[in-house]
Amino acid sequence: MKPFAARTDALRQSDIRAVTFEVNRVGGINLGQGICDLATPAPIVEATVEALQHGSQIYTAYNGTSDLREAVAEKARSFNGIPVEGPESVVVSTGSTGAFLATVLTLFEPGDEVVLFEPFYGYHAGILRLQGVEPVAVPLAKTGGRWRFEADRLAAAITGRTKAVLVCTPANPSGKVWDEGELRALYAEAERHDLWVLTDEIYEHMVYDGRRHLSPASLDGAYERTVTLSGFSKTFNMTGWRLGYAVAPVAVAEKIGLVNDLTTICAPAPLQHGLAAALPLPDDYYEQMLADYTVKRTLMVDALRACGFEADPPEGAYYVLAGLGERLGQPGFEDARAATTTLIETAGVACVPGPSFFADPADGDGHLRFCYAKERPVLEEACERLVDAFG
Ligand SMILES: Cc1ncc(COP(=O)(O)O)c(C=O)c1O
């Protein structure tokens, strides 16, 4: 047999999937994988059933149906403040992941470097590597319970091969919500070195404590060099539907769309028709979601603190990246992987070991990520189990 393509050599089952397998084996509660077990809003389900029953089974345009692109363009203007030209600035794809892949294929050559901020979302690094693009991790600094961007660190990481910076806001796994000063400093570097900026804003509706989600592309002069990636998976609890999008200046969106055509032809048609018919959802949907996640965030943080972990309330998204604190080094807590196994075996609760989010796995050894996007009774039980076992 001829060998596999070299790009697959480093591919392994992720820690996240391995943890899922282990926790299912013991019938435990999975706070590891970032999947939300809440129901998709009824209006979206009903409109999609309707679309399925009334002949929406054929390919859509490669960049998505005009109704859904119009709805996204309208939301990009009114919610995100992005100066989009119109629906032609939007590419609907199979999840924001599909949009990210098409963007990577559109903008980068093998050998290019893309800066991302550590701790980072593993798929960003993995998808870049798969295309021969090198992810360069710039650590965020944690001070006073907050993860901060330091422009000097970014400046030091830029080389002649750097082609883009990638910002995740609100961030998985840190929960960091980038503020205006940080984004302006980042764009100053991007302009100085003529870099693209890719932004992942999939958690844009989960921003706590009166903070405001600021879309990088809404800053003066930023739109021209920015590809904004987002989707519906997290906001509407529909991770398995696989609908997301990229928003970019028309010339960029056109190419991303053409690549999207070659990678997947189009996103699932009935789901696009159904979602477009159901959008926009009323404001109180988003308000209620945020209120629910705020309560869940407190439950999670309090339980982790009661267990002796270091847990700061995240500014956004739905993860707590906890420090092992005083437990690190104790038997069963020698490092993050050992701690994860101990939590599964002793409490029947799974999390993700920190090394998944760091370029040098050793840097993540003091951390565990807990996802609180769970039905409230399930989350309460998980918290009780943790506190009973380790509190
Ligand atoms: C930061 C981030 N981006 C993207 C995704 C995946 O989004 P989608 O389902 O739209 O592909 C996730 C899922 O966990 C995520 O955490």
TrEMBL record:
Belongs to the class-I pyridoxal-phosphate-dependent aminotransferase family. Its cofactor is pyridoxal 5'-phosphate. Its EC number is 2.6.1.-. GO terms for cellular component: cytoplasm. Residues 28-386 form the Aminotransferase class I/classII large domain. This is Aminotransferase. It is an enzyme of class 2 (transferase). GO terms for molecular function: kynurenine-oxoglutarate transaminase activity; pyridoxal phosphate binding. It comes from the Bacteria. The keyword Transmembrane does not apply. Pfam families: Aminotran_1_2. Keywords: Aminotransferase, Pyridoxal phosphate, Transferase. Transmembrane segments: none annotated.
